[in-house]
Structures are given as C-alpha cells and as structure tokens.
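Notes from the 1:1 (GR / supervisor)

We went over the backlog. Supervisor wanted to see one worked example end to end before approving the batch request, so GR pasted a single chain during the call. The sequence is below; no edits were made to it. Supervisor asked that the structure be written out right there so they could see what the output format looks like.
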Amino acid sequence: MLKKSITAGGSISIGAFAYMIVLQKTGLSSLASCVFFVGLLLVFLTGSKLFTGCVLTMRNNEHYWYDLTKVWFGNLVGSVVVSLLLYIIFPDLNFKAILDTKLDKSFLELIISGFFCNIFVCGAVYYFIYFSNKEKFGISWFLITIFVAMGLEHSIANQTYMTLAMIKGYSLMLIIVNLICTTFGNLLGGLVFCECVKEI
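Structure output shown during the call:
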C-alpha cells in the first residue's frame, strides 16, 4: 500500500506540473485544466492509491482510518520527491499566482473548496472503476477538468504546490493550514459521496 501511495502522489505531482507548464506557455487556464488529468490517468493505469479516491474505494476496509492515513502520508512522500525533481528541470516555472491564490484562502474557503473537489474526484473514480463502457475515460476526464477549472482544492495536488511554496519561502503555518483544511474538506466530500452511492 505504501509503495502504491507514493506512486500516486508522484503521479498527481506530474499532473500539477503539466497544468502549470501549459498555463505558463499558453495562458489558457481551460487548456491547462484539461491536461491535469494525466496525473489521475497515471493513478488509474498503475493501480496506485490516491487519498481522495481511497476515501471512496477503501470505505469497507477493516482499518479504514489507519489505511487512509497511510495513503495520505505515502502520497505526501511521492508528491514531495517528484515535485523536487521536476523543479530541477523547470526552475523558471512561474507559479507565484497559483500559490498566492491558494494561500490567501480562509479556513472555511479551503474546507468548502476541498469538499466539492472530492465530489468531482470520487465521481471520476467511481465511474472509471465501476463502469466498463468505452466512454469512462471521457467522463472521468471531464469531471477532473471541471474541478481544476473551478479552482477547487485537491489536498494531494496541493502537496505539490505547498512543496513549491516551501522552496519559495512562504509561511510554514499557511502551508500547514492549507494541507489540513483541504484534506478535511476532501474527506468530508468523499464521505458524503459514499453515502450517495447505493453500493460499490
């Protein structure tokens, strides 16, 4: 589980960097939002464990909360390592506006944003895993693209952004608050989604 969690964190970091690179090169947030899905696609293809999706898929695990915690920290390791490696390749990437926007949000804004984010993510994961029709990639991609375009807060993607924030010397307290609040919001959103689906 730990290995798969680390892989998932790294995959989402790749998606976050793809978003930032396309946004900087084109200035088109809509196009940049479309490419973020590559991170979740890598998670799907490798069978990795992503915290936001695992809130849904692991809900019948005997040690649910313990397993979720392991997944979150595994995601963090993967995110930090891949973020640092990609930053070496793209040191001139301009992500200040993204960091400022994320770190300027209040506690409540972060929680609500994280809540709605994981409604979209769990919807994408649920559709991808439990339906076998050919359109599942398209549906999942659409749901992920929408949450990114809306600027909703994904705690694992934020592990990448907060790693970059630390590199740039942002307040450690703001970074910690962001991760805690977005994680809590994602958790609530995923639990609500679980209650809305009849069975898995």
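Supervisor's comment: DSSP finds ten helices and no strands in the chain.
Batch request approved.
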